[in-house]
């Protein structure tokens, strides 16, 4: 099967390339001749996870001689934030598809944990979070917040067309984050508000249909029936 272009898929926080959304989009895109890159962003030790460590994993992957730079990037939750940052780094990127992107990360962590929770994390040096990809609790160092503060995650601008999906009942990343992103980028952002929560798992087919149409309009995917492997 002829490869038309390359897509970089970035999974969410405490997730993995084996997640339902990652595998669903990879299968759909691959069937249309798209080469899908699915890096594991967790690193060797999840405790040391940071935006910087994940961007380093992406840079390392894309610097490989046999890997083409992404024509477009799909990112889920924290992966959506990373996709928006990465799109500015790679001139080959022509579009992004964002699933409940985790904009405003440092600010929202402070709001979520409160002063007491944040102080406890700082004092102990780590907190524990449930890792959905590994199905167990994992430690995460306080350096995660310190690193995130180095990045602009509020009022982000995007130079390429962006398709954004966000659940109206998302209690992890408020829908207001994507509404603000769309308001700040009116000429680039196509926002779809869905009757769903943060996972968006129940809206996979609806998101794919909109993604397919979006990618066709950007000339990143050829309209028609999926290709057969072989």
> Can you count the helices?
7
User: What name goes with the CATH superfamily?
Assistant: Alpha/Beta hydrolase fold, catalytic domain
Rg calc: 17 Å
Output the CATH topology: Rossmann fold
- Describe the sheet with the most strands: 6 strands, parallel
Indicate the overall shape.
Answer: globular
The rounded distance between the terminal residues' Cα atoms is 7 Å
Bin the helical content: 25-40%
| Name of the level-1 CATH class | Alpha Beta
CATH architecture: 3-Layer(aba) Sandwich
The average pLDDT is 93
Task: Give a description of the structure.
The protein is built from 7 helices and 8 strands; from the N terminus they run βαβαβαβαββαβαβα. With 230 residues, the protein is α/β, with parallel strands linked by helices. It has one domain (5-104, 155-217): 3-Layer(aba) Sandwich (Rossmann fold), CATH 3.40.50.1820. The strands form 2 sheets. It has a 6-stranded parallel sheet with strand order 2-1-3-4-7-8, with helices on both faces. Strand 3, helix 3 and strand 4 form a beta-alpha-beta unit. The model has no long low-confidence stretch (mean pLDDT 93).
Q: How are the SSEs placed, and which strands pair?
A:
Blueprint: E1 5-10, H1 20-31, E2 34-37, H2 51-62, E3 72-76, H3 78-89, E4 95-99, H4 105-124, E5 126-131, E6 136-141, H5 143-148, E7 162-167, H6 175-184, E8 189-194, H7 204-217
Parallel strand pairs: 1-2, 1-3, 3-4, 4-7, 7-8
Antiparallel strand pairs: 5-6
Please summarize what this structure is.
By secondary structure, the protein is an alpha/beta fold.
């Amino acid at each position: 099967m002829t490869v038309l272009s390359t897509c970089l898929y970035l999974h969410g926080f405490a997730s993995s390339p084996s997640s339902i959304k990652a595998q669903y989009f990879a299968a759909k895109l691959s069937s249309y001749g798209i080469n899908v890159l699915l890096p594991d962003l967790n690193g060797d030790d999840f405790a040391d996870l940071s935006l910087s460590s994940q961007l380093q994993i992406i840079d390392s992957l894309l610097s490989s001689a046999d890997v083409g730079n992404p024509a477009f990037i799909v990112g889920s939750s924290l992966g959506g934030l990373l996709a928006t940052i990465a799109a500015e780094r790679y001139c080959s990127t022509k579009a992004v598809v964002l699933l409940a992107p985790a904009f405003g990360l440092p600010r929202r962590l402070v709001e979520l944990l409160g002063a007491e929770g944040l102080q406890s994390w700082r004092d102990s040096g780590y907190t524990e979070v449930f890792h959905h990809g590994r199905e167990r609790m994992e430690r995460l160092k306080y350096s995660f917040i310190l690193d995130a503060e180095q990045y602009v995650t509020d009022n982000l601008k995007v130079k390429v067309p962006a398709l954004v999906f966000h659940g109206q009942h998302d209690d992890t990343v408020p829908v207001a984050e994507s509404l603000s992103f769309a308001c700040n980028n009116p000429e680039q952002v196509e926002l779809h508000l869905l009757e769903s929560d943060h996972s968006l798992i129940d809206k996979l087919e609806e998101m794919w249909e909109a993604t397919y149409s979006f990618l066709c309009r950007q000339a990143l995917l050829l309209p028609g029936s999926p290709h057969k492997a072989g």
